[in-house]
Amino acid sequence: FPTQGSLLYLDALHAAFPQALAPRSTALLSWAPARPLAPAGWPLPTLYCSPPETGALPSRTAALRVQLLFALQARSLRVLEAGLASELHDALATLRSGWPELAQDLALGRLSPQNGLPEDLRGRLQELLVPDAARAAELRAECARGFEGIAQRLWPRLQVVVVGTAHGGERLYLDALRQAECKGLSLYCPFYRAAGALLGVNLWPEEPEPRFLLCPNWAFCEFLPCPAEDEEDQRTVLLGELWEGREYRLVLTARPGEYRCRAGEVLRVAGFNKQCPVVEPVRRESQVLSVRGESIPEERFCQSLCRAVGMWPGARLIDYVCVESSLLGASSGVCAPHYEVFVELRGLRDLSEGQRYKLDHCLQEDFPVYKSFRFKGSIGPLRLHLVGAGAFAQLREALGSPVPMPRVLREERLLAVIQSTVIS
């Protein structure tokens, strides 16, 4: 992780929010069992209010709950920080469902026993908690009022929410936070990473849409213009040859001696800053649905799904994944290959058959190729399943590593987790 990237991030954060780097004024909600590091790239013990070992617990759920408890203890927070937008989303979902128990722990200055929290570590962490009945009463009062804008109500001095990754599939969580728990706060995504390498930094913390300055000496980047007229004869271009407004596929050599490869990322050049390109991530090419070669990108499918959800009165989309029916084998039935979609909703308990068909109808309107295959019968009707609250938190726990969850499932073990939570 280039030190220059960390320094640029901290400088940009301080320039936009001068109080953000005050000692013990940042709560870190991030699970990194192998190597606990903050999104800044190194441990900063004087900056964070929670003990560093909380991020290295064997259980993701336990780690986020313990970190949330230490964050609630610190009323004067300036920054909420998370490695992924989904981690902050899940931590605040724990607040929604478990605030009475959290308030009791705050009042008694204790750490409740829970799965994935070793007893010896629980004892050491409990010594750092102080009984605070007044703070517990404040937590109960604010949660009883509802959860819209809860972050700023619980932490009145909070200035900004920092998430290490917020593009691709993580955008859904970022939008949900912006509309509900973190309403009214700036959401800042400081870094752009691909294939394990840091490529760019966001120097504009107060802008709602993240864009990243590509730094030329962090990795060797090449770019393939997209779309390409002739894929075979196409040549790559370098940083100095990019055009504003165009989209490019990223070809990456992360470090000297490593293989040159396509990173599976598509970027749009949004402009330039002192001759260095400023880019916006557009999509990940690996996240594509294609049972008959129709190739529906993840972000386009998400747009169709959100449009369909807008036709279901009172419904709000919390999360989703999509599976190609071949992964289900015989359990998918004898009809033509099709999509199996699993969604978590808030505000709606069930869907009629007509409502479920809305998503298939939206896909046909948005993708003529899909409509053609549906008309011919070579792609079967989409099947939509509702899952219970917290189903996707279980799925992220099952991933076993702090990486963004794929929107297109291709692993049977992950499919089994989400199938076990289906309610209709």
Automatic annotation (TrEMBL):
Recorded hits in Pfam families, A to Z, give: GH3, GH3_C, GH3_M
A single GO CC term for this protein reads: cytoplasm
Which InterPro entries does the record match to this protein?
A: GH3, GH3_C, GH3_M
What GO molecular-function term can you cite, just one?
acid-amino acid ligase activity
Q: Which residues form the GH3 C-terminal domain?
A: 309-398
Membrane-crossing ranges are none
Task: Tell me where in this chain the GH3 middle domain is found.
Answer: 213-284
Name of protein: GHDC protein
Provide the organism lineage as a comma list.
Answer: Eukaryota, Metazoa, Chordata, Craniata, Vertebrata
